[in-house]
Amino acid sequence: MRASLEMRWFYSGALPKSLNQWFGSESLGAYLSPPEEREDIYLLVPNCDYLGVKLRGKTLEVKWRQAELGTMQFANRWEGKAEKWLKWVCADTMAPIPADIVATGKWVGVKKKRAQRLYQVSAPGSLMPVMSVPVEAPIPQGCTVELTQLNINGSAWWTLGFEAFGSESCLTESLETVASWTSKSYQAQKLKAEDSSAYPIWLGSK
Predict the structure, then answer these.
(1) Which is higher by pLDDT, 99 or 87?
(2) What is the pLDDT of residues 38-77, one digit of tens each?
(3) pLDDT at residue 30 above 80?
(4) Residues 182, 94: Cα–Cα separation, whole Å
(5) What is the 3-state secondary structure (H, E, C) of the chain?
(6) Are 61 and 54 in contact (CB under 8 A)?
């Protein structure tokens, strides 16, 4: 079980070139994961925006929202809703969901092409509060930033997301520190609070 503080936006259509260029720029640090392509299968739970259940291959992930922490604003370009989540991961416990179960409509497949960056957050007062590190680095406190192209039911979407992890008492500071630092070089479209949500809300609107 792991606690995280998350902030995310969803937009329909193809990923704008300006977003892709910004995310790949050296201004965000030296480490950028190569794009990863996969399909996750989500359980649709009607009228429930606080629970997320998905299958990623043979791994089952369950997320439960603990708190909504309101809207955060960064560099007059981003306004996003921060939420605290708990996640359980059960690895290699079952086979992939069969096609006939997916066909019942209770599950939906989402194709993803995801690039990630990982940032280590230092103690307050440090000369280098944010440091770019390889995405597989085993750091105790930090924040993952992802830019993902999505395809659901044949429709293209994209999402930008932040996920802070580590000591629960430092989650808010980690998210704010990394979002503030990365937003300084952002020049693309404004990201609005009305378009900010976690996956359960987005999936429920499809």
Answers:
(1) 87
(2) 999 998 888 889 999 898 888 889 999 999 999 999 988 9
(3) yes
(4) 38
(5) CEEEEEEEEEEECCCCHHHHHHHHCHHHCCCCCCCEEEEEEEECCCCCCCEEEEEECCEEEEEEEEEEEEEEEECCCEEEEEEEEEEEEECCCCCCCCHHHHCCCCEEEEEEEEEEEEEEECCCCCCCCEEEECCCCCCCCEEEEEEEEEEECCEEEEEEEEEEECCHHHHHHHHHHHHHHHHCCCCCCCECHHHECCHHHHHHCC
(6) yes
For residue 146, CA distances in Å to 8, 100, 133, 182, 185 come to: 9, 32, 14, 12, 16
Going 26 to 144 to 183 to 16, the CA torsion angle's sign is: positive
Spatial CA neighbour of 120 closest among 87, 74, 80, 164: 164
Q: Identify the sign of the CA torsion 30, 112, 44, 61.
A: negative
Q: Worst-scoring range by mean pLDDT, 66-75, 116-125, 196-205?
A: 116-125
Confidence band of 96 (pLDDT split at 50, 70, 90)? low
- 10 Å Cβ neighbour count for 116? 19
Contact 13, 158 (CB under 8 A): yes
Cα torsion angle, 185, 144, 71, 53, sign: positive
